[in-house]
Amino acid sequence: VKPKHLLNRNLLLDIYLNEERFAEAKKEADFLLNESPKDLNVRLKNAECQIGLNQFEAASIELSKLEVQKDLSQSLRIKVLLLLGDVYAKQRVNATAIAYYTKASALNSNSVDTYLKLGKIYFREQQYNEALKEYLEAVRLDSNSGEGNLNVGYIYFNGGKANPQQYGNAIYYLQKYTTLEPTDHQGYLFIGKSYHALRSYRNAIAPLERAADLDTSKARDETLKLLAESYSGVNEHAKVISAYEELEKKSYPLDAKDYVRLGVSCKAMKDTLNTGKFFSKAATLDPIYNNLYQDVGSMYYGSKNFHEAIKWFERRVNASPNDSNVATAWQNLGLC
What we know:
Distance between the termini: 102 Å
Number of helices: 19
Number of strands: 0
Radius of gyration: 30 Å
Structural class: mainly alpha
């Protein structure tokens, strides 16, 4: 075989590995190893093929042999350690994976990829502070790391439940992520969620709308629900109704608070019939909302439809006759 042909097979091997076409890559690696069985680069790439094909034992044996190779360059040694980490990470032997990634990091403290791998493993282990530390280091080295910015933002978002100030940190990194990956809905979604958690509903709307436009998965329904809540928070009543109507068409399960928001929006738009419909659903799901029957009665009373007003005031009385606040309903009944 001419050297030119060997070079071509090496290039083909690299292409297949980059495209994660591991079966085809393995054929090229086998061919090259047959020609040059001691070629360290080819042996390394062959192990990478084996990992891609889930041949973990074979990959581990080959990489362990390479790890103790005395004439191995530092760059190749780092790759060997990273691949050994990958072998154990894919098998969820996380402690061993961390050990190999840490060894690789000690040899090259400027490797963004190593910090990303460590962050992923620590996150899987629910060691979120350690994961954050690794992802922040990746972002420090490469501010344009999409994976780094997204995961830093996500960890800060989850930390916001205990410390609301973390939502601000989340927004910062997630906004950076959206500039890097403008077609990925995740960045917009967690920006919107962060603003929503801070009850900054007006700021939540634009990113949530963008997330809903980009997301075609079933999870979009949850984004739509957050949008409905945000619209309600800024009294955009027509949009509240439209968002919830879309969810109802999809048979998305609404809770009592959702029906309250729908009822409030219908009430603001002077739609008495649907106000009654949604307030009734809210009260049926949670008796704490029994007082809403009275609101519907008052709407009918205000429009001088006393017959309907009586029905709703009676529903209020019958729903919780021993409630100390029910006296107003009795008074309204008397007025009717």
